[in-house]
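My current task is to audit a protein record that another person submitted. I have pasted the whole thing underneath without changing anything:
***
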Amino acid sequence: MKILLVEDETALGESVLAFLKKEGHVCEWVKNFSSGDEKVSLYKYDCALIDIGLPGGSGLDIVKTLKKNNSKTGIIIISAKNSLDDKIVGLDLGADDYITKPFHLAELNSRLNSVLRRRNFEGSNEIVFEKLKIIPDKQEVFVNGKITTLTKKEFDLLLFFLSNKNRVVTKESIAEHIWGDEMDMADSFDFIYSHIKNLRKKITDAGGDDYIKSVYGMGYKFSAQ
């Protein structure tokens, strides 16, 4: 999943970033209000972890930007403010969760996964689509009841398609979501074709149908039809 961390405390930011990457997420980190507000205005994320007290402004205004743009990004506020009023303000603005510093990284990860399940997969621990069953927390994929081994990028790609099933997604949106900031320096998106080809082959070889449809001139659509 693609995560944005907006946090100005360097030590905390480094530990959260390292932990989330170890958990397999694509994670971008900015340290002030203007960078955070720009990121959520320009790019799409599965979830944003937003501190309230930031250099240059309040993280609550970034939450407002996300809501004004009708973003589907999940929002977790991370803050040293522990008063009931602060929590109510944050949640009433539209945040999905609020966690008070200091916190355990394992707790943050569990809350993050909970938000992602509610946002993308109706709260379920398992995603079932036709002949596919995916358990995101364990990064397991079953095709026709048989476990199928995917690379990390193939797994992320499959989750992205399932989060956007029956919608056309462009190569640019796939690249941005799966590779994050690294894509800013890419000359082309041709390598995405290879990942999609491999994912498609593994699913069909295991007895699944070809769910990845090419949409000429636009991108791809993950669909049963």
